[in-house]
């Protein structure tokens, strides 16, 4: 079966987002390298516009709307960063936006989404079916629904993060990518394996929400209850119909880290790298530095997915 | 009277530190610009090696040691970041180092200084004379004393921060620089006024420690008691014999900000720019964004001096 996206899609996405998305920095830390026994290259999507990689996929999708779609608007459901990515992209392209978000999203994400001019509709993430809510909305208003990960344009957009990383640092032995619904890792795996067929691409999930790990082992999509983890960007119940085949074919392994390890990663990022990362943003960093993956002696890409964490909440993690 | 340093000294310093010091990023923030009503360019020395601009001056000084000086070693007194700068530079150059530091320095700074292999000698910043202690040490052991700011090689090294900023962003209307003993601002003023004679260079002090503001107005160095402020890098009692003439001739004005304003700056940096800055690092940012200086409609350089803050302490500021 052919995959939903190929390398050309990612290159085209890179052209669409050029000059609009930030080309985020690749940071290194001698202390991190010492701790990991490896050479780590952190692709810092916490410095992306709206604070996370999600802007890439959202903008790539909206930039391909027809004039009719632009006029009717976009709607989306999201645990937070995709919402902001859609809202900001819609604002930049002059498209109306309505976003279905969990009631308990970090306040900073709710406020930012509204700040970009989008209408926000909240739901209870432990009770309601957000997808059904968003579909209803799109039908009632004729808006195009852009899902947070299971969409070829979104996946291709997210893949530009790995494309930029590999363009900047050259060959890597391993690429570590956080995994919620699989949008980021599927785009990144397609880019990375095309540029460097020998690279090992490894997904990192919260231990409480290892549905992708289970799914990969079972050979079919496994659905779990909404996991309780501080990694709010990876609180997905299942990977996508489009992302799963990519994960099956191109992702070499999936590992997990605990919430305690995410907090340790956030503390390291703040204390030593002077950088704020959100819990989900610590997944790949924790895996690289705290032994979830053997990376000794390797050149390792680590994608930091975002930095959108309430500072009062961050204060608790750092205390 | 001729000043202690000129532009050539800064260019030579830039050559000495090239490939050793980080060329730190210049970051921008649309939100910060909106709040300030200006175009702000943040020169992020929190991403400098050892986490602050002090590495520049320390390395520039130690790189000029004679073989005899290298063998006997270096000693220094410092509220923290200069200590780390000297310790790391000494380690890189294979020079023994002994550092006199306040007992109440942030634990992260004490640990980092020892981590770079330096011997640490502590003192009480409200009782002891650190300069006398360091002089005694240098006499007893034949070590060369490198003061934290009142030294031409240190001043020239710090000036490379402004040199890099102006090389990268071009002409600026105003440059805001934090001010403790005056090492950073004197180096930066010499670089900035040479490259752009019309630029306004403004120093920013904590309101509790406005000795430089008083000194500039009085036309002579005014000594104050050790100020109680969270800006531990600007807890100096007086500016230097070498830095003061530069401040008199090349610094256009000196303004002050409160500790509450520094905390607001640290919160903005963490929440919106995903960046950890130390309280002293917030001086210029607070001045630019909270009205201490009129920068409306201008292109403004803002030097973020460092990011070395205990994360437990940072947690309190962010809570």
Describe this structure as you would to a colleague.
The structure is a homodimer. The radius of gyration of chain A is 18 Å and the shape is globular. In chain A, α3 (about 55-60) crosses α8 (about 150-170) and α8 packs across α9. The model of chain A has no long low-confidence stretch (mean pLDDT about 95). Chain A is of the alpha/beta class. In chain A, the strands form 2 sheets. In chain A, strands 1-2-10-7-8-9 form a 6-stranded mixed sheet, with helices on both faces. Chain A has helices at about 5-15, 30-35, 55-60, 65-70, 80-95, 105-115, 130-140, 150-170, 185-195, 210-220, 245-250, 260-275, 285-290, 310-319; strands spanning about 25, 40-45, 75, 95-100, 120-125, 145, 175-180, 200-205, 255, 300-305. The interface of A and B includes residues 277, 307, 312, 316 and 317 of A.
How would you concisely characterize the structure shown here?
With 319 residues, the first copy, chain A, is an alpha/beta fold. Chain A has helices spanning 7-17, 30-36, 54-62, 67-72, 81-93, 107-115, 130-141, 152-169, 183-195, 211-218, 243-250, 259-273, 283-289, 311-318; strands at residues 26-27, 39-44, 74-77, 97-102, 119-123, 144-145, 174-178, 200-206, 253-257, 299-304. Chain A is globular, with a radius of gyration of 18 Å.
Blueprint of the fold:
The structure is a homodimer of 319-residue chains.
Chain A (H helix, E strand, L loop, with lengths): L6 H11 L8 E2 L2 H7 L2 E6 L9 H9 L4 H6 L1 E4 L3 H13 L3 E6 L4 H9 L3 E5 L6 H12 L2 E2 L6 H18 L4 E5 L4 H13 L4 E7 L4 H8 L24 H8 L2 E5 L1 H15 L9 H7 L9 E6 L6 H8 L1
């Amino acid at each position: 079966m052919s995959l939903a996206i190929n390398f050309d899609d990612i290159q085209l996405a890179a052209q669409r987002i050029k000059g609009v998305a930030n080309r985020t920095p690749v940071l290194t830390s001698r202390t991190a390298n010492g701790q990991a026994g490896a050479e780590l290259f952190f692709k810092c999507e916490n410095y992306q516009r709206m604070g996370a990689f999600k802007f890439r996929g959202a903008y790539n999708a909206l930039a391909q709307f027809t004039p009719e779609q632009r006029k009717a608007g976009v709607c989306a459901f999201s645990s937070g960063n995709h919402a902001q990515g859609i809202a900001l992209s819609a604002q930049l392209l002059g498209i109306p936006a309505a976003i279905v978000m969990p009631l308990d999203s970090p306040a900073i994400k709710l406020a930012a989404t509204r700040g970009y001019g989008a209408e926000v509709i909240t739901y209870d993430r432990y009770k309601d079916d957000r997808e059904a809510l968003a579909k209803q909305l799109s039908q009632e208003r004729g808006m195009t629904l852009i899902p947070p990960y299971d969409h070829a344009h979104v996946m291709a957009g997210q893949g530009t993060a790995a494309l930029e990383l590999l363009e900047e640092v050259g060959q890597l032995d391993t690429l570590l990518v956080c995994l919620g619904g699989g949008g980021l890792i599927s785009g990144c795996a397609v880019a990375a394996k095309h540029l460097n067929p020998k690279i090992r691409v490894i997904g990192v999930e919260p231990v409480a929400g290892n549905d992708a790990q289970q799914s990969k082992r079972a050979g079919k999509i496994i659905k779990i209850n909404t996991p309780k983890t501080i990694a709010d960007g990876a609180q997905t119940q299942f990977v996508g119909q489009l992302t799963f085949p990519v994960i099956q074919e191109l992702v070499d392994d999936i590992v997990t880290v605990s919430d305690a390890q995410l907090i340790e990663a956030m503390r390291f990022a703040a204390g030593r790298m002077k950088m704020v990362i959100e819990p989900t943003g610590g997944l790949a960093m924790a895996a690289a530095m705290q032994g979830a993956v053997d990376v000794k002696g390797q050149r390792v890409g680590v994608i930091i997915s975002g930095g959108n964490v309430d500072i009062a909440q961050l204060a608790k993690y750092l205390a």
